[in-house]
Design brief:
4% of the residues lie in helices and 45% in strands. The protein has 278 residues and is mainly beta. The strands form three sheets. Strands 8, 9, 10, 11, 12, 13 and 14 form a seven-stranded antiparallel β-sheet that branches. Strands 4-1-6-7 form a four-stranded antiparallel β-sheet, with no helix packed on it. The chain has a three-stranded antiparallel β-sheet with strand order 3-2-5, with no helix packed on it. The longest helix has 10 residues.
């Protein structure tokens, strides 16, 4: 059931040396269920004053201690749509400002996928990628949301096409596939809609590239922003290939969040080289 209401917001920052995946914050005896890590916002319908807030850690993937770095409690008259106790976001929550992050994938800049720049990308930079058949691109949101859409910008500086699928999860253990485009030739902007469900992690897995053995993604947003889509569509006719056909590319070694370098070019041994053409 959907409902909108003014809310009390509790923002919690926790130590990230070990992921405490689940906790319950009790406000005047009313539990607020929130999970994930980093910065989180728990919400409760306004129903009067409160005197105490209790936060109980229930799990830590590294040790038996629950860590909190900072805590804030605020009030806002802004209304939020709630479904099954989770916020249904209207604005893009996959941003650096909202504490989302790219936890798997290769890029010159760790969060290039989330910085909102859909104009400045080329053969060398402005995208996040992974080797086909190995790994994925994984985005972590700051907390679980009820999500029903995402939008991607696939690298489109030439005429190549990609295939991929998308999965979502709340714990990185159980994944639900929400889009299967493994048998579709996909280019440029991709709108993905699905039945709304809780999600903290979104995994994008490339399965095919007509140019080489790497899957490249420039931009990710969640949920899909219709206003941004209209702007991009209106400018589409004025855009073109940003690189001349047959341009000689200067290979570069890119760094992944994990510290691994970009997979090598097709036809070479990925273990023996960390240099890659786009």
């Amino acid at each position: 059931m959907l409902k909108t209401c003014p809310v009390k917001l509790c923002t919690v920052r926790r130590c990230q040396n070990g992921v405490a995946r689940r906790k319950a914050a009790e406000v005047s005896g009313s539990p607020l269920q929130i999970s994930s890590f980093g910065q989180e916002k728990a919400s409760q319908q306004s129903s009067g004053g409160l005197g105490y807030i209790r936060i109980v850690g229930t799990h830590n993937t590294v040790n038996k201690i629950f860590h909190i770095v900072a805590f804030e409690c605020m009030f806002t008259n802004k209304t939020f749509t709630l479904e099954k106790g989770l916020i249904v976001p209207m604005e893009n929550v996959a941003t650096i400002a909202d504490c989302a992050s790219v936890i798997e994938g290769v890029s010159r800049s760790r969060n290039a996928l989330l910085n909102g720049d859909t104009k400045n990308y080329d053969w060398d930079s402005g995208y996040t990628c992974h080797q086909l058949g190995s790994g994925a691109i994984v985005v972590q949101l700051a907390q679980p949301y009820m999500i029903g859409s995402i939008r991607l910008l696939l690298w489109d500086c030439d005429d190549r096409s990609y295939s991929y699928y998308v999965e979502v999860s709340t714990n990185q253990q159980q994944w639900t596939m929400v889009a299967d485009r493994t048998k579709v030739s996909c280019k440029s902007w991709q709108s993905v809609t699905f039945e709304r469900q809780p999600a903290s992690f979104i995994r994008i897995v490339g399965t095919h590239n007509t140019a080489n053995e790497v899957f490249h993604c420039v931009h990710f947003e969640c949920p899909e922003q219709q206003s941004s889509q209209k702007e991009e569509n209106s400018e589409e006719l004025g855009t073109g290939d940003t690189s001349p056909a047959g341009q000689q590319l200067d290979p570069h070694a890119l760094q992944a969040p994990s510290g691994n370098s970009l997979p090598s070019s097709p036809g070479s041994n990925p273990r023996s080289s960390n240099r890659q053409h786009q």
